[in-house]
Design brief:
Elements: H1 2-7, H2 18-36, H3 49-64, H4 67-103
Helix pairs in contact: 2-3, 2-4, 3-4
Length: 105
């Protein structure tokens, strides 16, 4: 946490005050929970990296009253969605190719 203490300071406080804090935090935690619950198996590397960084950045932002950390958490959440979408596309694309290769000769 010493690293985050050097990096964070109170700024963009409207993101970490009142109802906005509750809405943004709830959104981040619900989305991270839903994304981590997707069964990807044990062979996908870094599947929980961005969701865990999102939670870490949000919690740091809330403790240090730093809205910039909340923005970093949202960016990590978007990166998680992009990563999972790309992964789903690749599985679908190569799955169809493999299915056609083995079963339609």
């Amino acid at each position: 946490m010493r690293f985050f203490r050097k990096l964070s300071k109170p700024r963009l406080s409207f993101l970490v005050e009142g109802r906005t804090k509750e809405k943004v935090g709830g959104f981040i935690f619900i989305m991270v929970g839903l994304l981590v619950a997707i069964p990807l198996g044990g062979v996908v590397p870094f599947k929980n990296l961005f969701p865990s960084l999102a939670v870490l950045f949000y919690c740091t932002g809330e403790v240090e009253r730093d809205g910039l950390m909340v923005i970093f958490a949202l960016i990590c959440l978007v990166l998680t969605i992009i990563f999972y979408s790309l992964l789903a596309y690749l599985i679908l694309k190569f799955g169809v190719v493999a299915f056609n290769h083995f079963f339609w000769k």
